[in-house]
Amino acid sequence: MGIWNRTCGLILRLAGWKVIGTMPPEKKCILLGVPHTSFLDFVVSYLYYKSIGGNALCMVKKELFFPPLGWLIRAMGGIPVDRKSPSSIVRSVLHNMHDRETFHLAIAPEGTRKPVRKWKTGYHLIAREAGIPVYLACFDWKRKQVGVVTKFELTDDAKADTARMQQAYREMDLGARYPENYITE
Asked: Which of 17, 92, 153, 159 is most deeply buried (CB count within 10 A of its CB)?
């Protein structure tokens, strides 16, 4: 691993975070990150994935891709998407995936940092369309642990899979940066 990977690991340790789990062995996969209540979740996740030698990508609204911010977002793995058109998001992600040898896509299934009960199922559509696995990952502010927890097997039922996934996260008893924005019921 390079100096940047070790530096990211050092920053995490100095901030009191513990790394759990390992990078998925597949070259292409989806990483679901929960609970997502703060921009700092992205920072912790970025530092974590770099510290284990990975290069995770994430979807970012296209409006943020203006110079110089856009350059920084791309350098950190941002893929511009048009949030007004869900079908174009899937097409854009699949296009980006086919153009890369390695593609670990980090998605917050909550879809926002605000409190939500109904999580998005776009991860399911992308994973099924591309034939790639899904992993549950977390940034647990209560225990200050970040990492990939387990592989999550999908069925043909996105709604049922999402409910099952939410239950799995509930059982993890995770702490959010802003607990009032993380609905676990």
From this structure: 17
Q: What is the pTM of this model?
A: 0.92
113: exposed, middle or buried (C-beta count within 10 Å: 0-12, 13-18, 19+)? buried
Amino acid occupying residue 154 = L
Which CA distances in Å does 79 have to 7, 160, 178? 24, 28, 26
Environment class of 33 (CB within 10 Å of its CB; exposed 0-12, middle 13-18, buried 19+): buried
What SS3 state is found at 161? helix
CA 13 to CA 71: how far, in whole Å? 27
pLDDT in tens, 108-153: 999 888 888 889 898 999 999 999 999 999 999 999 999 999 999 9
Over 80: is that where the pLDDT of 54 sits? yes
Strands (E), the chain: 18-20, 28-34, 56-61, 78-81, 103-107, 134-140, 145-152
Radius of gyration of the chain (CA): 16
Per the CB < 8 A criterion, the answer to whether 9 and 51 are in contact is yes
Instruction: Please name which of 61, 121, 131 lies closest in space to residue 97, comparing C-alpha atoms.
Output: 131
Which amino acid belongs to residue 166? Q
Do 29 and 132 meet the contact criterion of CB atoms below 8 Å apart?
yes
